[in-house]
Amino acid sequence: MDSQTLELVGRHRLASELLQAGLEVAFPARDRGIDLIAYVDVDPAGSRFVARPIQMKAASRRSFGIFRKYEKFHDLLIAFVWNVDGAEPPETYALTYAECLAIGEEMGWTRTASWLEHGDYGTTRPGRRLQHLLAPHLMTGQSWTEKVADRAPQAVSAR
C-alpha cells in the first residue's frame, strides 16, 4: 500500500472509530498538523461543546514515535492507527503530547541524538515494554468519548 493510500485508509478508519463512539468528526481544509477534529456537540451533561484536534499516524503494521513539532498544539491528541493494511486486527492508541513525551522519557528516547538534534524518535518494532506503556491508551468507544471530552484520568507510566 503506498503512503497516500495508507494515510487515507488510516484517516477513514479513525473517523469510523470516532463516529461509532458517538462522536462527531470534522476535517480541516488544510493540513497544518491537525488531520481531523473530534467533537462532542451534545454533552451528556448538556453543559458544553468539546472539541479535540487529532494528528493521526497510520501504519500498515505497528509504529510509535514522539515528535516535538506537535508540542505547540493545545489539546492535541496523537492517534497511532496500527494494522491499517488489514493483515492483523486494527488497533488505535491515542495520547496527548505530554503522554507521548512521558513514554519517550521512560524508554530513554529523549536522551538520543535523534531527539536532541531533530526533535523526534520512533520505532516500527515496539517491544513488550513499549506495548505495556501504550496499553492504557488503547482506544475503545468509551475511552474515545472520555479522551475527547477530557474526562479520562492521566495514565501513569509503568515499568
Describe the structure.
This protein has 159 residues and is an alpha+beta fold. The protein has one domain: Trna Endonuclease, Chain: A, domain 1 (3-Layer(aba) Sandwich). It contains 5 helices and 7 strands. It has a 5-stranded mixed beta sheet with strand order 1-2-3-5-6. Strand 5 and strand 6 form a beta hairpin. The relative contact order is 0.17. The C terminus is likely disordered.
What are its keywords?
globular, Trna Endonuclease, Chain: A, domain 1, 159 residues, alpha+beta, 32% helix, two-stranded antiparallel sheet, five-stranded mixed sheet
- Mean pLDDT, as a whole number? 90
For the biggest β-sheet, the strand order reads: 1-2-3-5-6
Content-based structural category: alpha+beta
Name the shape in a single word: globular
**Uncertain stretches of 5 or more adjacent residues:** 152-159
Query: How many distinct helices?
Result: 5
Estimate the strand proportion.
Answer: 15-25%
Number of strands: 7
Q: CATH class, please? A: Alpha Beta
Helix content: 25-40%
How many separate structural domains?
1
How many strands, what sense, and barrel or not for the largest sheet?
A: 5 strands, mixed
Pattern of helices and strands: HEEEEEEHHEHH
Report Rg.
15 Å
- End-to-end Cα distance, whole Å, is 35 Å
CATH fold name, please? Trna Endonuclease, Chain: A, domain 1
Query: What is the CATH architecture assignment?
Result: 3-Layer(aba) Sandwich
